[in-house]
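Amino Acid Chain and Its Fold in Token Form
===========================================
Scope: a single protein chain, as residues and as a discrete description of its fold.
Amino acid sequence: labelled as such and written in the usual single-letter residue code.
Position: the record begins directly beneath this header, with no further notes in between.
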Amino acid sequence: MNRRDFLKFSGLVPAVVPSLGSSSAAADLNQPNKEQANLTLRIAPVSLEIGPGKVIKTVGYNGSVPGPIFRFKEGKPVTVDVFNETDVAETVHWHGQHIPSSVDGSVEEGTAAVPPHGHRRYRFTPKPAGTRWYHTHSMAHGDLSRASFSGQFGFAIIEPAQHAGDYDQEICVAVHHWEPSLANMGPPDNGWEIAYRSATLNGKMLGAGEPIRARDRQRVLFRLLNASATDEVRLALPGHRFNVIAMDGNPVPHPQMVDVVYLDIGERIDAIVEMNNPGIWLFGSAKDDERMMGMGMVVEYANKSGESQWVQPSNVGRGPWDYTQFGTGAVAPQPDHTFEMKFAKIPGNRKDFNRWTINGKSFPEIEKLRLEKGKRYRLAFNNDTGDIHPLHLHRHTFEVTEVGGKPMAGLLKDVISVNRRSTAAIDFVADNPGLTLFHCHMQLHMDFGFMQLLTYSG
């Protein structure tokens, strides 16, 4: 199936009505029938059968996990009706998009939550083009059934005005861990962390879902998303290599062929795979214990049968991969201003959750960082903890300018994975006024202090 046929027959492309104007403010849906919405998103309980007889009670979008793949046209305004059919207030964050604070989906930025058994209507103009996603931005605070522990996530692909379409088939794969429980791990003074009993790709455990079907010599575009609450992942497809062409929806300056794809929480990877090794293969986690929990799916070539093959890749690594390999090799220009940010942990001592600080303060007590429109800013990170941190900046795209002491330029992202006891830096242009949230995308870190707001002067 080629790309055009995939889009036609997938059933995942929402109907899009003509332009509805440029309004970007969120509004109550008191009279939802006055104007037709492009999309309807229903937040509701779901019974998800991830394997034979194994049912997860969770909350999802439009009755499924992941939610539907939404496809937008870059620059074409949309209206989204969100109905909340649960007993708690909810949010929907349009991750990676340059949209106003009022519709971004973070109550910290001023987006109105969708009340229990209520609804809201949101209008925004999708941008920039690329693999984006949408998910809840609620806090869990120890409730392991809520927030990103639940099934509230889905792809939001923003199509450019023109697309090269240099592939034959598109496969979207979302990673998620399930059945979380509190666990004591790490050093003796560490607080509660999370252990899992099962994991899925696209809501199904290994062997429970349909295989990826391919033909010899096809070029397959994999859009990969880590939608887990607390864990980074490494994925491999033995017998094949990934040509990484985009990160977080943004084309990389220097595409690389890799055997293992690294994704921290919230990261996306677009990678082309040349299907040139016919057989039955297992695509999944490079970690044995995660594959045993279900994090895998079968890749089946046409006219091939038998058991799926797995070959453990070498050099899997423990930390984030080296982002510098995807950059231009240049050094980024000096910013107008640098904000130094040191991250620390206040241990929970085996009886409470750890707390997290930026320059000695936790959210909401930490002061806002002030920006001037049009200036280039650098966030210089010093991770003084034993944890990897996936750091996300809302409503802006940033350039990675240093990793582990190595300067770099050209790589554009919205999440960066910062290694333990290490440094990194990102630059961004203050070009989207309004409250902007910066936070660690690891749910327990975000819940317990690891957030800060940025605000524009004037």
Notes: The longest helix spans residues 3-9.
